[in-house]
Amino acid sequence: MAKELCVLAYSGGLDTSVAIRWIADNYNLDVIALAIDVGEEKDYEGIRQKGEQVGAVESLVINATDEFCSDYIRPALAANLMYENKYAAFTALARPLLAQHQVRVALERGAQYVAHGCTGKGNDQVRFEVTYQALAPQLKCIAPAREWNMTREQEIDYAQEHGIPVPVGKESPYSTDTNLWGRSIECGIIEDPSVEAPEDAWEWTVSPLEAPNEPTYVRITFDQGFPVALDGQSMAGPALISALNEIGGRNGVGRTNMLENRLVGIKSRELYETPAATILLAAHRDLESLVLDRDTMHFKPYLEQRYSELVYYGLWFAPLREAIDAFMAETQKTVTGEVTMKLYKGSAEAVARTSDYSLYDLGLASYGDADTFDPSKAEGFIDIWALPAKVTNAVRRERG
Ligand code: ARG
């Protein structure tokens, strides 16, 4: 009788390679290894082959970079997504996409199980499993790294016993997660928040001290809240984001060093490198300040914060996220125009902006010759505006 099937989210690393064999042995299942490219520059053909070699009955790679950009990064930018005002939440954004593809493959192949390589201490397990439960609750979930109770050494022994390649040479002291929108660095000395992170943790960004002494300017064109051109040259989202990762990284832009509150209640010390996200979020916010009316601009951050929490907490496939997306999309209709960013030794500052939808009116704002504002109107406005303060204070003075 054919064995039941399990679709594993496969990265090609040690944990998920061991997981292929471990699931096959401990659950008596055939394992399909599914690697998904969300813009990390890796040898995906090598990963596919490794999946097979390690024991998957089928090993496949899906390139989901365009989809990640259009369906996840685009709404994230519209919502200025920043968890705890610092983290662009790129790991959180990618997980529902990975899980969504897993579910699709599982249903296509008639699999009964899905599996991921997350541990029991992090947020990613939640993000995967909420998505499984939202999209296909009949699928059973296996989380080997949460179940097997192996130390790192035991895991390496297990790998060696089963002919699973163990990375040779000096192992990186860090654990990283990378996609188009950013790179995270955890573990090793980084776990001690009282110590400054060592320089070798950073890969995408140079130290601001080493960055050029002259600023670099980039002009970003937005169409309804999403970047479509760099210095006047039209570019697809992934290419544009990659280019900004490179330009920003060269200028030391996009390093984040924070203490973060995980959904599972643990505080963790995190390093992130997000040059493109840092530049684009700053440019996007700046353009919004030109084209959004005051009330919308002041209200939007409440929903942005809620949105950031929802995404970080793994609730991508939840009705509130969709409803907030609809609000955000409405606000982005006029977020079209150009922003010039000045990148200099770690900083990314918007220094100029234009838009056909600009609400800036020189005649109203100017103190120069262009002035068209009638100041006499201000007097009546102030009388009425001041009324509550005037009455209340008068009563207080009388009553003591
Ligand atoms: N703390 C971040 C988050 O929860 C980054 C997690 C990195 N994930 C990983 N599997 N290394 O989104």
What are the key terms here?
400 residues, alpha/beta, Rossmann fold, Argininosuccinate synthetase, chain A, domain 2, 3 domains, 5-stranded parallel sheet, 5-stranded antiparallel sheet, 44% helix, elongated, binds arginine
How would you sum up this structure, described in words?
- With 400 residues, the protein is α/β, with parallel strands linked by helices.
- The chain has three domains: 5-70 and 86-170, 3-Layer(aba) Sandwich (Rossmann fold), CATH 3.40.50; 178-354, Argininosuccinate synthetase, chain A, domain 2, CATH 3.90.1260; 366-398.
- The protein is built from 14 helices and 14 strands.
- The strands form three sheets. Strands 3-2-1-4-5 form a five-stranded parallel sheet, with helices on both faces. A five-stranded antiparallel sheet has the order 10-9-8-13-14. A four-stranded antiparallel sheet has the order 6-7-12-11.
- Helix 10 (294-312) runs antiparallel to helix 11.
- The chain is elongated.
- The chain starts with a strand and ends with a helix.
- The mean pLDDT is 96.
SSE layout:
Blueprint: E1 5-9, H1 14-27, E2 30-37, H2 44-54, E3 58-63, H3 65-78, H4 90-109, E4 113-115, H5 124-135, E5 140-142, H6 144-147, H7 152-161, E6 175-179, E7 182-186, E8 216-223, E9 226-230, E10 233-234, H8 237-250, E11 255-261, E12 267-273, H9 275-291, H10 294-312, H11 319-331, E13 337-344, E14 347-354, H12 362-365, H13 376-385, H14 387-399
Parallel strand pairs: 1-2, 1-4, 2-3, 4-5
Antiparallel strand pairs: 6-7, 7-12, 8-9, 8-13, 9-10, 11-12, 13-14
The chain binds arginine.
